[in-house]
Amino acid sequence: MKSELFPEIPVIPFEGPQSRNPCAFKHYDPDELVGGKPMKDHLRFSMAFWHTMNAGGTDPFGAPTAIRPWDGETDPMRIAELKMRGLFELTGKLNIPYFCFHDTDIAPAGATLRESHRNLDHITGLIKQLQQDSPLQLLWGTANLFTHPRYMHGAATSPDTRVYAYAAGQVRKAIEVTKELNGENYVFWGGREGYETLLNTDMKRELDNLARFMHMAVDYAREIGFTGQFLFEPKPKEPTKHQYDTDSATVHAFLQAYDLLPHVKLNIETNHATLAGHTIQHELQYARIHGILGSVDANQGDTLLGWDTDQFPTDLYTTTLMMYEILKNGGLHRGGLNFDAKVRRPSNTIRDVVVSHIVGMDSFARGLKAAHAMLQDRALEGFIDTRYASWDEPLGREIQSGTTTLQSLEQQIIDLPQFLPDSGQQEYLESLINGYL
């Protein structure tokens, strides 16, 4: 039997809603059929390497608190190997089929880009070796273009061409590794692609350069035969005051303006929607109705805090409405539900990490079943159909045909007595959703 890094963590069983075992699923049964499809195919869970294996429990006011098996190790490559083995062990015990990473999450950066590439190649070889005895697959890869000081002014939007070229080298390698590991997606996250002040910013040049950068990435991917899906992740602020990927609608407009729409869909995060002043349902629905919903970073934020807290999803109302939009999208297809989430600083043991994933997976399982039942009953659709019924009547059809004018519409209602539209019944609809929960 192979040695374990986390012998205290068992293989997590499904025990059902009555279980009080914190290390057991209460609602997530991967083989349970929902709408004729197993839960595991609806949900396609993924573990985020950066939070699960790298987060040390730091915050702006405190040092690391996490207790991990590699504490005390000093060789960066040895630590990277242990973390990767730990990821495979935890995903196996949790029955999570996918993982995601940034390049510098899994392999330490070298003194030069060439050395960084060598380190990444070594860890890529280890991943391929570990995959021989594991079903774990790569949901998506990406490059970290925001942590190193060289990226303080951005990467693909940097005013310095050397930084732009360095970022290009990182992305080229990250796409190559994603392909080598049969990754299903590649993500662009513009962590610092924005500005702190317009007083020193040439916005048009930066947007043009960002689009040019993304086109080069798409061209390279096709050149090497990468057939995965490209994803762009919206986020409005933090770390920069304004980021060019503010929300789904802004990214959609950018993709349209620069002819990237055929190649790129969206990876949408719950906490980023909050920072943009939207609900996650809004962001998912906008992407869905425009055909660009690709994947989801599944977490939640704290409404009392104004930053990206990346907490594990526990709000059943939110997970239900997320799955409602995802089911209406026909699923996430090549995408998945990636737990871009971390435990709170005082939750410093690996058991806390495991329990957090269990709670997140159970929350989405409950949301899936509630959303499916709502769609089966047409609980919201029936109400919406009635609310917009006048658009299926003669006047509505005439307007939608494009044959009306302002004058012709005025004549239709010029002698109509004063009236009010019907109630929107928001509170009733909210109570309806509560009933499904």
Automatic annotation (TrEMBL):
Binds 2 magnesium ions per subunit. Residues 147-286 form the Xylose isomerase-like TIM barrel domain. GO terms for molecular function: magnesium ion binding; xylose isomerase activity. GO terms for cellular component: cytoplasm. Gene3D superfamilies: Divalent-metal-dependent TIM barrel enzymes. It catalyses: alpha-D-xylose = alpha-D-xylulofuranose. It comes from the Bacteria. Mg(2+) 2 binds at E269, H272, D308, D310. Pfam families: AP_endonuc_2. Its main location: cytoplasm. InterPro entries: Xyl_isomerase-like_sf, Xyl_isomerase-like_TIM-brl, Xylose_isom_bac, Xylose_isomerase. It is found in: Cytoplasm. Keywords: Carbohydrate metabolism, Cytoplasm, Isomerase, Magnesium, Metal-binding, Xylose metabolism. The active site is at H102, D105. The keyword Isomerase applies. Its cofactor is Mg(2+). GO terms for biological process: D-xylose metabolic process. Its EC number is 5.3.1.5. Mg(2+) 1 binds at E233, E269, D297, D340. Belongs to the xylose isomerase family. Homotetramer. PANTHER family: PTHR48408, XYLOSE ISOMERASE. This is Xylose isomerase. The gene is xylA.
